[in-house]
Write a structure and sequence with these properties.
Belongs to the AIM9 family. Its main location: mitochondrion. Keywords: Mitochondrion, Transit peptide. With about 300 residues, the protein is mostly helical. The protein has one domain (about 25-85, about 110-265). Helices cover about 55% and strands about 5% of the residues. A hairpin with a 2-residue loop joins strand 2 and strand 3 (about 100-110). Mean pLDDT is about 85; it is low at about 1-15.
């Protein structure tokens, strides 16, 4: 028998947080500590606008570590914190179905990001609707908006199925405030996703603090001037992520640039180059060309 350790293993190893028998507060603090360690030891690779400096990340994580223990005592949150196995990267490409019945799942692959997290960490409720300015959109924008609406409809079907077959999961989905869910989900990914999502969850939590029912004052506060600055940055980040999702849709790719094997990769690459030039042309109206290239959605590996 071969012992499994860091020197030898069968298959890939994803080193992350290893914890056992901990409370919700300990989990949140461990997630923040993981980001702290990553930020202090490694250089930040800026992806997207307003990614934040190391100081920004350290301050944001410090604020999160003050808020998390207070929230962890929140009774409603505790009720939705049952440890749950999460795949971490579950999509249609990782699900095998029976060739005689596509509704029969026979296996799931790529478990390297598996984790055990609170039940409330699942994605929140969605609204399957078209944008209010849908009639003013160009054809490509309308196509993307319809695809997003259809995806939301599928999510609604999932929510309805939970009510019927697993009410406990549905309650975990609906009881936890979305800002609290985002706080826990963004705390250990600031080094990858930037500081804005974490700051936004902290701001929303502070604004709704008394509605939660915690008598102590919120440990996190933000000045009015900083709040206006954050809202502008948040709007720009959301625009960037929407355009990124739209680009993924056009190229039928994921965040790492993978495309389905049945596609002609040369044609996909050509379309990518065209989209990149359009993006640089548009962004260069306000940014230097090199900065526009840096903000592109795919890493240049050439």
């Amino acid at each position: 028998m071969i012992s499994i350790n860091d020197d030898y293993c069968i298959g890939p190893v994803f080193k992350s947080i290893v914890v056992s028998k901990i409370c919700l507060s300990d989990l949140g603090l461990a997630l923040a500590s993981y980001s702290f360690k990553h930020i202090k030891l490694k250089a930040l690779i800026h992806r997207g606008p307003h990614f934040g400096t190391k100081t920004d990340h350290i301050q944001g994580l410090g604020a999160a570590m003050k808020v998390i223990p207070k929230l962890a005592s929140y009774t409603t949150l505790q009720r939705s914190s049952r440890p749950t196995l999460w795949h971490g990267d579950l999509h249609l490409g990782h699900i095998f179905v029976w060739n005689r019945d596509s509704s029969a799942i026979v296996g799931k692959i790529d478990w390297q990001y598996v984790s055990i997290m609170p039940a409330f960490m699942q994605f929140g409720m969605v609204k399957p609707e078209l944008p209010p300015n849908f009639d003013e959109m160009d054809p490509d924008e309308k196509t993307f908006a319809i695809a997003e609406r259809n995806q939301a409809l599928l999510s609604k079907c999932y929510e309805g199925t939970l009510v019927k077959h697993h009410l406990e999961s549905y309650l975990a989905l609906t009881r936890a405030d979305s800002a609290i869910r985002r706080l826990f989900s963004s705390t250990d990914t600031t080094w990858k996703d930037g500081i804005v999502p974490l700051c936004d969850s902290l701001i929303q939590i502070s604004e709704e603090w008394h509605q939660v029912g915690i008598s102590e004052p919120c440990p996190y506060q933000i000045a009015d001037g900083d709040l206006l600055k954050h809202r502008l940055e948040l709007s720009q980040c959301r625009d960037w992520h929407e355009l990124k999702a739209y680009t993924h849709e056009l190229l039928q790719s994921d965040d790492d640039g993978w495309v389905p094997p049945q596609l002609d990769f040369d044609k996909v690459q050509l379309r990518h180059d065209e989209l990149l030039q359009l993006y640089i042309q548009k962004e260069s109206e306000e940014l230097p060309e090199e900065e526009a290239k840096r903000l592109w959605f795919y890493t240049d590996r050439t």
